[in-house]
């Protein structure tokens, strides 16, 4: 389903990412354009934009810390500079990532942030090394930070019920929040019920058009990471919440270009990812102060519930849109262990006398 400007939400996001990437690349050495052209066929615009941001941090570090680089503008750096960089330079860059300042702001990176930036740098160096445009590849010599497993934060069954009750009645909200709640309640119930009842990503949720909802088969058509389309099916609770919201939605007058959007903001625009994140934060704060709940945590909550009900890790991977089932296994390893332990006394070898 296309918006009135003949471009759907996902295509517009892609165009915006391409435009942002071009702006960032314009601040980088000219030889970087070759790298981004070279990876276009097998990366998304969003991935290339992330690479561009990460690589810019690397060149800003060199401009600040390296006397040779400091004598010229970043855009003037020659390709030969890459062969001048040593393993020690990249190790110093990793240390720099822990804490640095830019334009008056302080930036920090934990082990995951450092790993992502080093992976970006490795891809960058690998491209030029494999293209035989440079002689050395020091980025490959620096080991990636070891990641420590983080406990998966999810809502318990009773917390899910309390959360949805809070969204419906708004009793835990402040007086100011309750005034908005009276206007957005039906939308908020539908949106959070959909997230909790299907496990879709927040980006997939905000990208939904009215025409993507099929009540005949109780399914929604979503655009997954990577750009492919998939149909996810929902149950009776999600159906009821969506029907209630659509009754209101049909009476709303969206702004031009947002006519087909399923979920609208109070400004009658397609709701944004940030707005959904703030919505989840607002309601979850009334349920638990010990857990930091985000839309992704609602996705983990759904995945946990589905796995406990079915015991089918492949089904969970498919519904959540994980390309590799090992990703799913990693996230639900603790539940896998629970199931293995529960098997201990399932098989009886002899009847007790």
Q: What percentage of amino acids are in beta strands?
A: 5-15%
Number of strands: 5
Mind summarizing the main beta sheet? 3 strands, antiparallel
In one word, what is the shape? globular
Q: Helix and strand succession?
A: HHHHHHEEHHHHEEEHHHHHH
Q: How are the strands of the biggest sheet laid out side by side?
A: 3-4-5
Instruction: Indicate the low-confidence ranges by residue numbers.
Output: none
CATH architecture descriptor of the largest domain = Orthogonal Bundle
Residue-averaged pLDDT: 91
Radius of gyration: 24 Å
Percent helix range = 40-55%
The CATH class of the largest domain is Mainly Alpha
How would you describe the oligomerization state of the chains in this entry?
single chain
Through-space gap between termini: 68 Å
* Name of the CATH superfamily of the largest domain: Intergrase catalytic core
CATH topology of the largest domain: hpI Integrase, Chain A
As for the number of domains, it is: 2
Number of helices: 16
Characterise the protein shown here.
- This protein has 353 residues and is mainly alpha-helical.
- The protein has two domains: 9-141, DNA polymerase, domain 1 (Orthogonal Bundle), CATH 1.10.150; 157-341, Intergrase catalytic core (hpI Integrase, Chain A, Orthogonal Bundle).
- 55% of the residues lie in helices and 6% in strands.
- The protein has 16 helices and five strands.
- It has helices at 9-25, 32-38, 45-65, 67-70, 81-84, 87-97, 111-130, 157-169, 175-198, 202-206, 236-249, 273-284, 295-310, 313-320, 325-331, 333-342, and strands at residues 99-102, 105-108, 213-214, 219-223, 229-233.
- The strands form two sheets. A three-stranded antiparallel β-sheet has the order 3-4-5, with no helix packed on it. Strands 1-2 form a two-stranded antiparallel ribbon.
- Helix 13 (295-310) packs antiparallel against helix 14 (313-320).
- The chain starts with 8 loop residues before the first helix and ends in an 11-residue tail after the last helix.
- The model has no long low-confidence stretch (mean pLDDT 91).
């Amino acid at each position: 389903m296309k918006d009135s400007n003949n471009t759907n939400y996902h295509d517009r996001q892609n165009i915006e990412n391409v435009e942002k990437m071009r702006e960032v690349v314009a601040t980088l050495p000219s030889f970087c354009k070759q790298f981004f052209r070279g990876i276009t066929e097998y990366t998304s615009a969003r991935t290339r934009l992330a690479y561009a941001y990460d690589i810019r941090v690397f060149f800003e570090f060199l401009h600040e810390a390296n006397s040779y680089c400091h004598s010229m503008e970043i855009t003037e750096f020659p390709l030969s500079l890459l062969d001048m960089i040593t393993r020690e330079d990249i190790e110093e860059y990793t240390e720099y990532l822990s804490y640095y300042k830019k334009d008056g702001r302080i930036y920090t990176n934990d082990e995951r942030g450092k790993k992502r930036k080093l992976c970006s740098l490795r891809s960058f160096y690998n491209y030029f090394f494999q293209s035989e445009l440079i002689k050395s590849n020091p980025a490959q010599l620096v080991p990636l930070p070891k990641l420590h497993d983080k406990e998966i934060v999810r809502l318990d069954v009773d917390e899910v019920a309390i959360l949805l009750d809070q969204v419906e009645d708004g009793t835990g909200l402040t007086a100011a929040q309750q005034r908005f709640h009276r206007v957005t309640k039906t939308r908020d119930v539908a949106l959070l019920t959909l997230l909790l009842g299907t496990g879709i990503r927040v980006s997939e949720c905000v990208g939904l058009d009215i025409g993507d909802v099929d009540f005949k088969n109780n399914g929604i058509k979503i655009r997954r990471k990577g750009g492919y389309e998939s149909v996810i099916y929902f149950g009776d609770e999600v159906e009821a919440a969506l029907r209630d919201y659509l009754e209101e939605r049909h009476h709303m007058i969206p702004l031009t270009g947002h006519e087909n959007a399923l979920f609208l903001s109070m400004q009658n625009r397609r709701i944004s990812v940030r707005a959904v994140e703030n919505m989840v934060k607002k309601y979850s704060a009334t349920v638990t102060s010990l857990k930091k709940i985000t839309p992704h945590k609602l996705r983990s909550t759904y995945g946990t519930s589905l796995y406990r009900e079915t015991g089918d890790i492949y089904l969970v991977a498919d519904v959540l849109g994980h390309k590799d089932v090992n990703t799913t296994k990693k996230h639900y390893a603790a539940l896998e262990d629970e199931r293995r332990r529960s098997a201990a006394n399932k098989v009886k070898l002899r009847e007790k006398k």
